[in-house]
């Protein structure tokens, strides 16, 4: 099933996915069963409904809007998010990304429409046509999902949950939970407590909770672990015991999160200053780890990367876990051998905060990853806001960096001026960095900044928007990986629309080659990227 047929919800192909209980399509569409009034994810273990009784809908909100309630067996609202919101760049996809970040809860439909640059009427018409529900219904489904998380994983009073999830009243909260899940909030909590097997699932305090973040398999866990560990800036981030801990700014304050990779999910331990920030925090964590990607579909399009030389592999000092088994080049090699070339399930790391991403990228221009982390840590120590927790500070705001960054930043004078200039543009609102922007507009605005070239603009656009089709062909390490694997970077059309993922494969291959070279030289160190 390809992206076009998923978008059009081709009945035969959707029904085939449901018949085979293919979990790869969970979150990409939903099955509404007219005889039961229930909607499910494609992989629901229940008996496959008859063709005449099913309708396929693009969003959970569309199913709820049509009067269906969520299946209590497969929990369709807990499925990984649709990859379409990243692969598509149209108005509907950009709106969905902003709704996930809680824009409607904070400012209503007018704020969403203004951010996207459309009228409320036009926005509602497009979303209803494309997604089967308007912005309010989409936000309602999002609130219902947040409410379920809080009901099942915390001991918070129901009144607190109602407002934390974004509902305007207790009555609205109760009515929505009953309509969507066919049980009262109290019954939902009782059932969750009875079924829970993890004794650590219920937090000790109302400001903390532990969540399971699902993803589509396979997942190249080793790549994400290396990326997170290599870019840690001490003071605001920590890599310890195969877990990534950091502070992040949220719409109503700040949060601390600890992420660790489990067999079939990511465990996220959250400490929130304000529980209203749960939904946007979870959305940002999923974005950081690219958990909504469709790795099988991506790997099928990329195929097996051709190569003439062994890229080598990173050892446990660089990639803490070997992750999934490597793919093989199925073409016959001399002697009939097949050689591992790349690991399936690679992800393109996103970000938790757009301004932070840009400023940290500019700090790291033309220096190694470790040197960039050192410079960032110095900035955080001097200007970052202090918070309680395992890591002590937040990344400084653009306004603070614009005012005092010159006192702390070191390096070439032009680079310092460029960073201060970018921080000033962010602080005064001349530069907007959010997921509702188009890639073309964002790249144009980034290139207009002094000191921002094509590589920085492409890198920030790729990570901020989760754009799947940006080839970092000017990156030295990517070029080294291409040489190692024999990939012709001039043949860019061959890899569309997944060139961002190709960039990560090449980046990893170059690191693996450096690690292999380091072992041969006996110094035990791999290079940086």
Give an account of the 3D structure.
With 529 residues, the protein is α+β, with helices and mostly antiparallel strands. Among the domains are: 295-315 and 325-343 and 473-521, no CATH class; 354-465, Endonuclease III, domain 1, CATH 1.10.340. It has 22 helices and eleven strands. It has helices at 3-8, 11-19, 60-65, 84-87, 91-100, 103-116, 120-131, 135-153, 158-164, 170-181, 185-195, 221-230, 278-289, 295-302, 354-363, 369-383, 398-408, 413-428, 439-447, 454-465, 476-485, 499-521, and strands at residues 30-33, 38-40, 54-57, 69-70, 208-214, 237-240, 243-250, 253-261, 265-272, 327-328, 340-342. The strands form three sheets. The protein has a five-stranded antiparallel sheet with strand order 5-9-8-7-6. Strands 3-1-2-4 form a four-stranded mixed sheet. Helix 8 (135-153) crosses helix 10 and helix 19 runs antiparallel to helix 20. It is globular. The two termini are 35 Å apart. The model is unreliable at 1-7, 304-340 and 522-529 (pLDDT under 50).
What structural class should be given to the helix and strand makeup? alpha+beta
What is the number of E strands? 11
In the CATH classification, which architecture of the domain at 354-465 applies?
A: Orthogonal Bundle
**What is the mean pLDDT?**
86
What's the name of the CATH homologous superfamily of the domain at 354-465?
Answer: Hypothetical protein, domain 2
Shape: globular
CATH class of the domain at 354-465: Mainly Alpha
* Biggest β-sheet strands, sense, barrel: 5 strands, antiparallel
What is the terminal-to-terminal distance? 35 Å
Radius of gyration: 23 Å
Strand order of the largest sheet: 5-9-8-7-6
Segments where pLDDT lies below 50 for 5+ residues? 1-7, 304-340, 522-529
- Distinct helical segment count: 22
Query: What is the CATH third-level topology name of the domain at 354-465?
Result: Endonuclease III, domain 1
Share of helix, binned: 40-55%
Beta-strand residue percentage: 5-15%
